[in-house]
Amino acid sequence: MVAFKDLSNIRRFSRKPPFNLLYLLIPVVFLMGEIRRAPTGVRYASEQKTRQMDVTIKFKPEPPAAGLCNQIYTWIGALALANQISANVYINVPAWSRRGWGADASWTEESPKSLFDIKSMISRSCQKRTKLVTKLNSKCPIVKIRIPRPVDVQEAAEFLLNQLAKIPNIPCCILDVGNTFGLQLYRHPQVAFESLQSLVFNSNVESEASLIVSRLSNFCGVHLRLECDASWSCGEQLQNEYTKIIRKVVNCGREATRCSTLYVASGMDSNHAASLVLGACNSSSFEIVQKDTILSKQRLGKYNSEQLALIDLLVLRKSSIFIGNWHSTFTLLLDRMRNPLMKTIYVQQDGEVDVVTSYTF
Predict the structure, then answer these.
(1) DSSP 8-state class, residue 7
(2) What is the number of alpha carbons within 13 Å of residue 291 lying toward its C-beta?
(3) 0.70 cut: is pTM over it?
(4) Largest Cα–Cα distance of the chain, in whole Å?
(5) What is the DSSP code string of 41-109?
(6) How confident is the model at residue 152 (pLDDT cuts 50, 70, 90)?
(7) 117, 192, 229, 237: which has the fewest Cβ within 10 Å?
(8) What percent of the chain clears pLDDT 90, i.e. is strictly above it?
(9) In this structure, are residues 351 and 241 in contact, taking their beta carbons and an 8 Å threshold?
């Protein structure tokens, strides 16, 4: 009888669980609520907003931050920002060329086609979330927003989304964000790399660079950044110190790769750059090559200052070892464009040397 009575109690409890077991259900219910809750974050919020509104980012490279690599970084910043908020990008923006350096520079507005193959870039973007466009919809209002600096690209995206939230529900909107140079990308290497991969350079400039590379075999490259808008490089004493550093680094590069040819990125100032490298390396050690060693001055004369710099950039992308310096966006950009197995040697401000074998934004 006792056993039967105990069994009936068990049955009764099975039909009506004791109160304390309900506490076990509380975390389960809470977790189910969390799972069912809508996702959060910049990407989700932007997709929700842009489903209701067609957003296009309008940007503009501007002097004085309009040297070749600064312009390219401005494009990368705009593309990365659009990627974060699922927007399109208006790319019919000016490119720039210049005469002279620093405060004496005279800037000329050029077509973006002078640097980029716009048609190929638009074709590539058709398969991606971020589309590139060359015309703006006249029915879409333009909202001018200036992003505070310095700022991470994701923080910039959050800032834009907050501004978009204040705009009434309208079918489309053009966000005029001005100059996107300086948006920080180092925490988002994949986004930055994808933005860089979206760029296709002017086919004529690419052809000139390919011709130069075809005439060279195993070569090292160097970019001195001695123009006078890099204030640290102006002055005979500083240049003499830099010459000593270049000699040490170049000789290390020669021993590492046994390359006998050194390609010097010269921009518009070929004579100064070549003479300094010759003094640093001794003419018997290397064959010093520049773009005007292989291409005639008449042939190069049809290109503006930033197209000439782009030729150097595209040639040095293929060098076995590249020697750059801490001060230059040219060095930073080129490191990111190169095969990660190729070596980039940075000359630091204090004369120390860093050897980098992979790119990081």
Answers:
(1) H
(2) 30
(3) yes
(4) 114
(5) SHHHHHHHHHHHSEEEEEE---TTS-SHHHHHHHHHHHHHHHHHHT-EEE----EEEEESSGGG-EEEE
(6) very high
(7) 237
(8) 39
(9) yes
